[in-house]
Design a protein that fits this description.
Chain lengths: 155, 557
Amino acid sequence: MWARAGRRVLRAPRGGCRGFASPAGSPGKAGGGGVSAGREAGRAALETGRIAREVVEHLERLALVDFGGPEAVARLERAVAFADRLRAVDTDGVQPLESVLEDRCLYLRSDNVVEGNCAEELLQNSHRVVEEYFVAPPGNISLPKLDEQEPFSQS
Amino acid sequence: MAAPVLRWCCPARRWILANIDRGPRHGRGAPTGSRSSGKRGQSSVAQQPLVTAQKPRKGEHQWAAVVGLEIHAQISSNSKLFSGSQVHFAAPPNSLVSFFDASLPGTLPVLNRRCVEAAVMTGLALNCHINKKSLFDRKHYFYADLPAGYQITQQRLPIAVKGSLAYSVCVGKKRSQVINKTVRIKQIQLEQDSGKSLHDDLRSQTLIDLNRAGVGLLEVVLEPDMSCGEEAATAVRELQLILQALGTSQANMAEGQLRVDANISVHRPGEPLGVRTEVKNLNSARFLAKAIDYEIQRQIEELENGGEILNETRSFDYKLGCTVPMRDKEGKQDYRFIPEPNLPPLLLYDSASLPAGADPQQVINIDQLREQLPELPSVTREKLVQQYGMLPEHSLTLLNEVGLLEFFQNVMKETRAEPKKVTSWVLNTFLGFLKQQNLAVSESPVTPSALAELLNLLDQKAISSAAAKKVFEELWRSGGKTPAQIVSEKRLELMQDQEALEQLCQATMEEHPQVVMDLKKGNPRAINKLIGLVRKATLSRADPTMIKEMLEKQLSS
């Protein structure tokens, strides 16, 4: 795949995101607001190389990760810059490669029951169990805003 | 209770603001429609109403509502979409869960062939274009009943697109006018179901059962071509019937096999579409229309009072009869779609493109599935109309009521009576009794054979229709006896003896000379009185028409 693209002349990096279809376009999903703000801030990051505070907050909420400090943000910025070098490749008229499996055959399984009945084994993985149910905290707990959080701790 | 029930539904329906019932208060009046000017803003489907309603009162403005639906149907299969654990409704918690369903590391999805066939068949039945290549994606969000943190779905390139669903609404005073409508289908996609959460607020915890996690779903997305709750409910019912006829889903809303989310917005005719809200948790056929109509009214009231509609997700509270914002869904969701890296594209073939020497287990032929499609409800209804000469609305009722069509057909098999008579008895008398006592066809105390026998007696003129009704009542109450037994027990047989009847007519006329004189003077009602008297004398065992004939013959002689 790389060989095909490599034959083309290297061009200047192209602007804009060759993106995945946006969730806001899909039927029925709530659009606008935080989603586009995050994406726009993300787009701005690609231009300047800096990742804004709102984007960090947004990412932390989406992926439930804790950046933990400015070093992590800097690492992310370097990672994005590294990946940006992909844009040096001219992909005019080339279909995007989404999976290295695209030439493989998708195996179709017969509709037979061959698994299950291992509740005891599975429940062993859970910290808390009530009568063969996994126990989880109630609903979704919303994260506090960045300002309300404690200052970054070195970890 | 919910907003005033809307008795009739017109296409391009106009909504008039009415008080929303939040409690025991009654609304000012049912929303009515009026003639459409033909403009509906940016809606690409213009529908002309055939029903005029009263003019809007002064000071009230017109609104148009737009309703789109996302319907999730559980695929009827033995095992799940990507794993070999069983699909079953009631089972001990977490007993139908494989390592993949529990999202243990190192497990991979393996696609179930039956689910793909179900999706293709449904797409074909709904006139969709089947994508010969479709792709799987991951939709990420965090919730305890989604152990992987993402759901495998088909967002970029679903298996079927651009279809249509035809349905019929009954309008008019007696709901006898049938209007055919169509709603466009945007797409059908395969996706995983999530597990079940049981919220224990008392102990501040949620109990998770993953039996349902990974079950195959068909998501059917209907374009916003509907304009009120009744249209949406009718479209859903028709989809249910189609899925059941195909066998791709049992589509039982009570068991959670069919779930509906509605996207609702209102706007003034001629203006752009308004902000939409998504209403989830519409899992009851009974409340589907009510919930949608409530939300439409709520939005109208909000806008009329100068407020604005938030693009939010709401839930329908069955107890309160109103929609409420969903706490968990505050804030916008970003699902961070990515291609599912563990699944290659799903390729389908037709007879022309089928690769030679391919393993039949590993390829799916769209043409073959098309040939094997069973009869769809619309075809069944058409056949009923052709074969039995019944009205379209009758065929609609026969199919809509669970088990009624089979009941009707079983009666037809065993009776010599005319189809029209059978239809009338099944749809009016039989169904009437069922509805009165809120019973399903399967719970009926009267069997098809019993009704068939009764109709035979009626057909032979062994009993009058009044007597037949009495026999039916008795059949309903007692269950065990046959119609013939009841007839002889209650002595309901029609008098067959002509001579005896003639004597009775003669005797009655002699006993009531006044009435006879009235009749001879030309009083038309006198004959009915005389017939009534003769009937009483026969203990209602004579056919009134026969009595009339006989009296007239005797009077003229």
